[in-house]
Amino acid sequence: MTALISWYILITFLGWLTFPLAYRLFPALADRGYTLSRAFGLLGWGYIFWLFANFGIAQNDMGGLLLGLVILGGLSAWAIFNQGSEIVNWLKENIQFILTTELLFIIAFAFMAFIRANNPEITTAGGEKWMEVAFINGVLQSLVFPPHDPWLSGYAISYYHFGYIMTAMLAKFTSTPAPVAHNLMLSLIFALSFIGSYGILYNLLEVRQKSKFEEPALSEAKGQREIENRKSKIVNSLFAPLFLLFISNLEGFLRSLHHAGLFWQFNADGTAISGFWTWLDIPDLKNVPAQPLTWIPKEFYWWWRASRVVQDYELNGTWHEVIDEFPFFSYLLGDLHPHVLAMPFILLAIAVALNIFLGGWRGQINLYLGKLRISKTGFFVSALVLGGLAFLNTWDILPGAALIVLSYALARVRESGWGWERIEDVLLFGIPVVVTAYLMYLPFFIGFDSQAGGIVPSFMFPTRGAHLWVMWGALFVPLFAYLLYLWRSRTSVNWRAGIFTSLGLVFGLLAMMFVFGFLALKIQPDLVNSILLAQGRDVNTFIADSMVLKLKYIGSLITLMALLIPTLAFLFAKAKMNASNKPFHFHPSSFILLLIVLGTLLILAPDFFYLRDNFGYRINTVFKFYYQAWQLLSIAAAFGVAVMFSELRGAASKIYSVVMVIVIAAGLTYPVFSLPTKTNNFKMDNPEQRILDGSAYLAGFMPDDYQAIQFMQGLEPGVVAEAVGGQYSEYARIATYTGMPAVLGWPGHEGQWRDATLLGSREIDIETLYSTPDWVTTRNIIERYDIQYIVVGGLERSKYRVNEEKFNNFLKAIYQQGNVTIYEVP
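and the corresponding structure tokens:
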């Protein structure tokens, strides 16, 4: 509780410290950036601190942290000096909204902290928690930046690690151990995402209410009445965190039906068959349900299956697992991975885009090739957020940049209409802002080494329509309903532009797939021939059979086209004009349509190409693109639901309410059933075990190693030698929980993060270090890697034929308890 309270006080102080600056920087938003001030403050503080630590202006200590806060506070003081009376008046006028936001934040923070306290273990099973704690500890142990890599001595972290720097900052400021900070940061990210999404929807509903015209026919029939009053906006804005953080894919709902025995035909001999579950082809759900039948799944790991809905098969029948996480699964799993850490900052990017779309940051920047219609402040805030996204989770710069740049283009459409000039606007703004973002975070990019090895055509991996709907059905239904609502209420729809643009995008992706396939055949013929050999086909039959497979699973493409065509048709519709023959302020539905377009393209793209990495197929591309799409589409779905619940009347309202209750209930089946499973029924039988220390389980699981780790945390940092083993194992336990750099941690992960040749002979050298009886050889290895501590425990003895005599003869044993001995190199 002490750590939880200290984190709450610190992040709330940071939010209030930053709000005056946010107020000045987000002039077009109704909440003036209040709901995102904590996230914006954390980004600003983190950027200042990281930059100063990289250039030696400050160190990674309390002094450096305070210096960053002082600078951030100075910027806010400048905002108060310029707009102090306005800020005070805004606070007085919005006290109900402020109190609601603060209440929601503390509830969300405490809720997820409670979930984590019931399931705090930072284990190696099926996740990246050890990697994450290793990075946090590595940052904490680094006096200057870039922080050292705890799993590869002598090197800095080669990974998008800004989120772990932020975590370490909060941990250092509050004196919180890394295993506790891991769970608190996950809780904080959840809470920041909760109020961030809440604020974005609130801003959209506020703009809708103030629009000079509404969709319609509804407005014409009802007159110019307000859509929602302030109280209804505050309540309806809760749909955003509901759809973003709680609504899940439909696997949980299907799992419940499966366990209840629906669609199964049970025979007298105890066997059972099901055409439906066999056709659906989702692992586990194809198996006969266990007796007795029940609506609530009983197996522990059933919740994991929801993140593996999409199934890929090669032409030869080889099956591949595909990751399709969604936010609630991530928080249930408890991995503090970059795609989770970046969530509040993706929302911040949406807020930046919305501010631009609504006309904020009006100004002019003269460039050599033309003029940007945006102020320098808006330009650099956009670059700050985009560069931060790349540092947090490099994949996220793609949707973040697209959203911000296209929002700028929409703002230009409002001023000058559609035309080829908008392409010029996109390039004229997009290229400089991305380059500026790169330069602002240059120290990170210089040391960053990605596993990505180019774009690979996805010929034989289309997503089945059935799997697409299991994954996205809870969002697709409200989105299609909202598009139908727009169609029935709008008078201006450009179907021609919608159809031809959608077809152009699909054929463009198809052409891109063939172009990259042709290039691969010419540049890497051996690789292509090996693939063809594995599939038992030549080039022509491979392409022909792949196209047949895409046609077989065309339901996915039809669904996405059905979403994309009307969305673009509405987006390209001619703007209505007022009496002065000038376009009215764009309705927020245009911004929502942009979210739908980008989200749909993110889902569609992996059916045509994927980024080449160590996995060798599209598992990671689907994972990252789908996750980004969920964040965009959930906001759009929430807006549609909020609007339609407010607008529909009569029979339409009743029908829509029934449909949405069913959809929401189906989407909430997964969290309702999975939470008790994952938390051991919230530890009702032993509530004293509710703790936030993710390492406490090691005291019972690896007691000798746990005590050794506690001892080593009090030593001066130095390079550690310990056993090297496979991924997702207990190897690298010392480096992980102390932050001291090991000669080598998990080799598989290090091979993903950087050029694998840099690992050299480290794994063999560590084996030699432990097993050789020759001290000269041992000493050479010690000197080569500057090893200061050598750990000999159960893992070392089980992995190697440890010759401990040489250590006893030439080194000092500074710790010996149970089966663990620690030697210090003088």
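(Above: one complete record from the training split.) Confidence is low (pLDDT under 50) at residues 212-228, 577-585.
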